[in-house]
UniProtKB/TrEMBL annotation:
Residues 1-20 form the signal peptide. This is ABC transporter substrate-binding protein. It comes from the Bacteria. It comes from Bradyrhizobium jicamae. Gene3D superfamilies: 3.40.50.2300. The keyword Signal applies. Belongs to the leucine-binding protein family.
Length: 402
């Protein structure tokens, strides 16, 4: 079943490297994420199962390579995530860390791993600093980032007439990054940002923030947050009748699991940008069906982040098989030779700055009567080509080339 991941032939460019070896005779991959908090549905144990699926599909890489998946909960705290990463590095012999939702945690892990032998597969860390000022030769960033989320979403909405904006933003690196990127695009292209409200991570009461957004009369209200924060904001916006009043709500970082949690009656009409949707094609549906049948998934469809864990883990393992090493200094350059078709993310290229580029999609959430079966939630509005969806390498991107 390896064909469900990167159906790519990795060039054996590192075959001549001396002393390439797999440390401890086993490749250990640590899934580091939020298992008990606001990202538990979009990541959580679903990400662990996705990594296990990748290891099973890798099946030793034709070389009998042993793979072990471990996991831990970073609790959305940078100090907790850092402590886990250091223990995995110094004590437990973990070779790669994957997933890591929460940009503050991801940036901390990125710093720890920079000069180590460990690879950071930042499949859920959205900060675009990972390919900018914080770039590292050990990091590969899959799925999404704040540049793509902010710029591409703003561009798509402005093309549809959304010129005036108001932001409801989570007050940490993720939200600030998304709002900053979107604001920059909006103002450069003739739009206006009429205001912004900042809220703490894990907010339950959005009334004051939403009323300010409603009173601003902005055409578009941008939710620059994620997980439970976005769900709570959307639910409360429905109570205020914000969309019925003519304002459009855009969720910058929303997943199919979030839509399922709030229900179509509440979520209908929302605009959102995704890198992956389980019902896009036969390959994504086949993966989703297998994922839904995994222990503890109980029929749940995978999020884009969980698909990213699978794709990045399998790409990493394929590079390990190609090089015979699990050292980041050997594996990551091998991963950067990848260019081709990924069955979950379409045409992909892994650039020299570690950014994986692929198409992005603008969706609108269906009305309840438009949904024909479980998790049939999105209708495609626009496809953004990979070269437009992500920050160009030469435009403020990481100058790292090795």
């Amino acid at each position: 079943m390896r064909g469900l991941g990167l159906g790519l032939v990795l060039a054996l460019s590192c075959a001549g490297i001396a002393h390439a070896e797999i440390s401890g005779d086993v490749v250990r991959i640590g899934v580091l994420n939020d298992i008990s908090g606001i990202f538990q549905d979009t990541n959580g144990m679903g990400s662990v199962e996705a990594a296990r699926m990748a290891a099973e599909d890798f099946n030793g890489g034709g070389k009998g390579i042993k793979v072990e998946i471990v996991y831990a909960d970073h609790q959305n705290k940078a100090d907790v995530g850092s402590a886990i990463a250091r223990k995995w590095l110094d004590v437990d012999g973990v070779d790669a860390i994957v997933d890591v939702p929460n940009s503050a945690v991801g940036l901390a892990v990125n710093t720890i791993l920079r000069d180590s032998r460990m690879t950071f597969l930042a499949s859920s860390t959205a900060s675009s600093d990972l390919t900018g000022k914080a770039c590292s030769p050990n990091t590969i960033q899959w799925v999404n980032d704040t540049w793509a989320t902010g710029n591409t979403t703003a561009a798509a909405m402005m093309q549809r007439g959304g010129k005036d904006w108001y932001f409801v933003t989570v007050d940490y690196a993720l939200g600030k990054g998304i709002e900053g990127e979107a604001t920059n695009y909006i103002e450069k292209h003739g739009g206006k940002v009429l205001g912004s409200s900042k809220h703490p991570l894990g907010t339950s009461d959005f009334a004051s923030f939403l009323l300010q957004a409603q009173n601003s009369k902005a055409q578009v209200i941008g939710l620059a947050n994620a997980g439970g924060d976005t769900i709570n904001a959307v639910k409360q916006a429905a109570e205020f009748g914000i969309q019925q009043g003519g304002q459009t709500m855009v969720a910058f970082l929303l997943f199919v699991n979030d839509i399922h949690g709030m229900g179509l009656k509440v979520a209908q009409g929302l605009q959102l940008l995704e890198a992956f949707y389980w019902d896009m094609n036969d390959d994504s549906r086949a993966f989703a069906k297998r994922f839904a049948a995994r222990p503890g998934m109980n029929g749940k469809m995978p999020s884009g982040n969980q698909a990213g864990v699978y794709a990045s883990t399998l790409a990493y393992l394929n590079a390990v098989a190609a090089t015979g090493s699990d050292d980041a200094k050997i594996v990551v350059p091998q991963m950067k030779t990848v260019k081709g078709k990924d069955k979950l993310f379409g045409d992909v290229t892994i650039r020299q700055d570690g950014r994986v580029i692929h198409p992005m999609y603008l969706f609108e959430v269906k009305k309840p009567e438009e949904s024909k079966y479980a998790y049939d939630y999105y209708k495609l509005i626009a496809t953004i080509p990979a070269e437009q969806a992500f920050r160009p390498l030469a435009d403020g991107g990481c100058s790292l080339v090795k």
